[in-house]
Amino acid sequence: MRRGLLLALFVMASPAAAQEMWERNRGECEEIFREWRTSSLGKLRDCVQKWEMYRDVTQASTDDRAVANEAFDKLYQEGSERDAVMALSALKRLGLRPKKLRSESKAIPREGRPDEEVRVVRPEAAPVAMEPDPAPEEDPAPSSAKKVRQPDARAAKAAAQRGKSLMQQGKLPEAVSELLIAADADPTFAEPLYLAASAFVQLEQPEAAVEYLARMKAINSDRARALVRQAATDGRFRSLRGYAAFKDLTGTAAIQILNGIGPDGNKKVLEFKKRLEANNVPVANVGADRNPRTATFIYFKPGFDRQAEDIRRQLQLGFVQKKPLHWPSEYDVILVYGEVPKDQWVDDEAEKAGEDAKAKKKAEEDAKRKEEEKRKKDEEDMKKKLKMLQMLEKMESDPTGGATPPEGVPEAPEVP
User: Fold this and answer.
1) Which of 47, 89, 152, 320 is 20 to 30 A from 278, alpha carbon to alpha carbon?
2) Strand 296-300 and strand 333-337: pairing?
3) Is the distance from CB of 33 to CB of 68 less than 8 angstroms?
4) Do 286 and 270 contact (CB within 8 A), yes or no?
5) Hey, is 79 helix, strand or coil?
6) Measured at the alpha carbon of residue 59, what is the angle toward residues 54 and 63, in degrees to the nearest 5?
């Protein structure tokens, strides 16, 4: 029941292989598309599945697109909910949209074999009395407001939850089916497309994964943009980091770090990798340079100079030489760590960053010292006040201060 739809959604090949497989497997699909008016939904469904599995749409002629548009639109309007999702996906690949939004209230349940021809039975017309033709009515003015289907957030969240549950069970094709239903129910819901892309990675369909990330980015909401940035560092998309389309989409550079000073530098380059990845900058490879280096170099491809500068700043490398990467490489930024002489000057920015850090640390130490001095002073003041109070209390209880009059001196008479 679902198997055909799922195969259609998940099997994507390279363009050349896809075209060859389409010609080998299309059967009578082109004729069925051309006869879309009388073709059964079962036959249309099978052919749209094959189209999604094998057809390289970049090779489709204008005539092929026009015919496919009609056939896909029929399946979208009259088929089941899952037929509609598949047909909509096929239309989007052609850069097309349905002629009108699908109305669930008009969906007619069909029984019987899916490949049966659909017979349309119309009731006999009732007898009509012969009367003069009424005066022609004027066509109503076209409405400027088009009926737009509102997003169904509740249905979208329910389908997305089913998709997540199926992913946890390892049922990836079924999961993607539910996630695409969620995305169709609410076109502003970014998470289902993100999860569908991650499922396509697990299904080893990188082109499909990038396509669904691109669809998510096209939503252009704050959440969608945040998820695009997240995809750049999400380990689930690690295998996509070498794809130009993924790098263009997320702005992610493939980074390599090389050790140019021998065994003594191994610990340092691993530390660089750890520091970058702690800042959500993935490192694709760590290795050893073939030549010893007496300076640190950063090589970068055109368009990746900003990422190269970000790496230099984050690692506070000091003196570096930044140069364009002019040889073929799968990496976009290559950092080669070299041993800098002790008396080598550092660049102004790195030096300033170091000075700023020292100044901040000194300010914190000064603040702690002042706070400690104030605490000690407050303690001394409190001790003095307590001592003064004790003296006053003693004087009140013994005005003489405990002294005795000398001999021969009469005591003062009592005051009446």
Assistant:
1) 320
2) antiparallel
3) yes
4) yes
5) coil
6) 105
368-391 residue pLDDT tens: 888 899 888 888 888 888 888 888
Owning domain of residue 32: 3-101
Phi, psi of 145 (to 5 degrees): -95, 120
Element (H, E) at 304: none
Residue 290, CA distances (Å) to 232, 256, 336, 337 in order: 30, 14, 10, 12
pLDDT of residue 149: 62
pLDDT band at 407 (very low <50, low <70, confident <90, very high): low
Cα-Cα-Cα-Cα torsion 48, 21, 194, 201, nearest 10 degrees, comes to 150
Least confident of 239-243, 299-303, 307-311: 239-243
At 334 the pLDDT is: 93
Phi and psi at 298, nearest 5°, equal -125, 115
Longest dimension (CA), the chain: 157
Neighbour order of strands in the sheet with 320-324: 285-288, 255-259, 333-337, 296-300, 320-324
Do 164 and 219 sit in the same domain of this protein?
A: yes
Q: pLDDT at position 109, please?
A: 37
Say which CATH number the domain at 222 has.
1.25.40.10
The CATH number covering residue 276 comes to 3.30.70.2390
Say which residue, 117 or 260, is predicted with more confidence.
260
The number of distinct structural domains making up the chain is: 3
Spell 75-86 as b/e; 16+ CB within 10 A means b. Answer: bbbbbbebbbbb
Tokens read off for 192: 């289902």
The model's pTM is: 0.46
pLDDT bracket for residue 168 (50, 70, 90): very high
Tokens representing residue 266 in the block: 């191994």
Beta-sheet pairing, 333-337 with 285-288: unpaired
Q: What is the dihedral of CA 170, 44, 65, 185, to 10 degrees?
A: -50
CA–CA gap between residue 390 and residue 343 (Å, rounded): 65
pLDDT over 70 percentage in the chain = 75
Q: Distance between alpha carbon 125 and the CA centroid of its chain, in Å?
A: 58
Contact residues for 312 (Cβ-Cβ < 8 A; gap 6+): 298, 320, 322, 350
